[in-house]
């Protein structure tokens, strides 16, 4: 724009604000003997180059060259200024160079993706676990209530189970000694659902027990074993952790804004589709095992009821898909599909069986 091709000296046009008056003066910038020369109609002003601060390059915004006591110069000619500075032996700082170098920019993108992937894989579960233990009871309660409300509206039907058996099971469960200090109050709600024999726990300590599971056995202790397993999920905040992990944005929002309505809205879907990790299932199994032992019952009871659930599940699958050789394990949120293979668990819970 204003570099003069005939002259070896690189010149750049600038507007000089001297800091004394509001008006700007057109000047031509050049460098000579380590000094920045501001040449205008009123003569030449010299600034020691080493004391001139050059602003970062940010898109096409004008660059500012500032000298304490001398005001500043505004330069629109980005390329010209770069040439002038390069000519004077002033190199852009490393950050500026990185921002304008394609390979470095690509490397930065790759690094960012790697950091995010690593965070998602390792940091997020860790953060969700740590945070889940600090979620206040009122939030767990809200989440439990709204989840049950949604489930009742769309997926669950009222229980047809004999009221006396419901009451007996609830009382027996309430009498169980937990292996450790229990942190939450528990309640069992009885429902019915076409999904088949199942039970699942909500974050607030509500355990949904389906008729189809209760009807699988006459032995209440087997039901208690399932309830103890579900209680293990609650005590370890597994559902809460899944909700937090599945909702990274929600996590950040809840953390900063203190508003959990977004989490509440997504919780039912996440809880229903939750496939707990194997580690979580093992934790819940161990909790159930300890509960059974603390109450003089055999952990094998959980294996027995799991076998019955698996058999019922296979039968249902066979009816639905007679042509299939083996049941597919990913069709719905199912007690079995969300849990590790029964054999593996039997070995852990009931090694002599
Ligand atoms: Zn489980």
Describe this structure in words.
It is built from 13 helices and 11 strands. By secondary structure, the chain is α+β, with helices and mostly antiparallel strands. The protein folds into 3 domains: 12-92, PH-domain like (Roll); 101-132; 136-349, no CATH class. The strands form 2 sheets. A 7-stranded antiparallel beta sheet has the order 4-3-2-1-7-6-5. A hairpin with a 2-residue loop joins strand 2 and strand 3. The longest helix is centred in the N-terminal third of the chain and has 31 residues, at 102-132. The termini are far apart. Mean pLDDT is 82; it is low at 1-7 and 327-334. The structure holds zinc ion. Zinc ion binds next to helix 7 and helix 11.
Summarize the structure.
The protein has 353 residues and is of the alpha+beta class. The protein has helices spanning 78-87, 94-99, 102-132, 137-154, 163-175, 211-214, 220-235, 238-246, 248-257, 261-273, 278-294, 300-320, 342-349, and strands at residues 12-17, 25-32, 35-40, 43-48, 53-54, 63-67, 71-75, 157-158, 187-192, 199-201, 206-210.
